[in-house]
Amino acid sequence: QVQLVESGGGLVQPGGSLRLSCAxxxxxxxxxxxxxxxxxxxKQRELVAIITNGASTVYADSAKGRFTISRDNVKxxxxxxxxxxxxxxxxxxxxxxxxxGSHYWGQGTQVTVSS
Length: 115
Known about the structure:
Blueprint: E1 2-7, E2 10-12, E3 18-26, E4 33-39, E5 46-51, E6 57-59, E7 67-72, E8 77-82, E9 91-99, E10 102-105, E11 109-113
Parallel strand pairs: 2-11
Antiparallel strand pairs: 1-3, 3-8, 4-5, 4-9, 5-6, 7-8, 9-10, 9-11
């Protein structure tokens, strides 16, 4: 079983920064991919960024140049550095781990960008 716990969300002013963290525990295999997704009311959950065990990354167009995803495979943690935040970034951010054809989700952490 895999458990994911996000942290680091909060309220920030436009132009500010936040760093999200995801701690993974359980049976995590080599080759697992991890990513960040977000969801707002009335919208589908959308990809923000993903990173493979080999550190290949994919970013949503809205995140390119502003967000950076990283992972520590020794500690099984995932991070998302979010800079130049905008009101449109307001959402619940979810951590996801994928392995053996299964997806595992965290409970989410709220990010609110507002003045």
